[in-house]
Amino acid sequence: MSPDPLASGRVRPAAVVNEDIRALWPRAGTQLTAEERAEYERLLEEWAAAVRAEVVEAA
User: Is 15 exposed, middle or buried (0-12, 13-18, 19+ CB in 10 A)?
Assistant: First the structure.
């Protein structure tokens, strides 16, 4: 599993996180394993944080 950027305080750009999310699906086929599902959920949280950070930065 990837290191948790939210815990370290750094936020990757939403586009980069989105690439990681998209990469899970072709590798997994139609269903994710429990480990992949956990990674997907973590990536969604990271993506949401990145989007919020980008909105704040734009304001």
Answer: exposed
> Of the given ranges (15-19, 23-27, 55-59), which has the lowest mean pLDDT?
55-59
Measure the CA–CA gap between 24 and 58, rounded to whole angstroms: 29
Distance CA 12, CA 51 (A): 10
**Count of beta carbons in the 10 Å neighbourhood of residue 12:** 18
Q: Which residue has the tokens 């734009």?
A: 58
23 in Cβ contact with 35 (< 8 Å): no
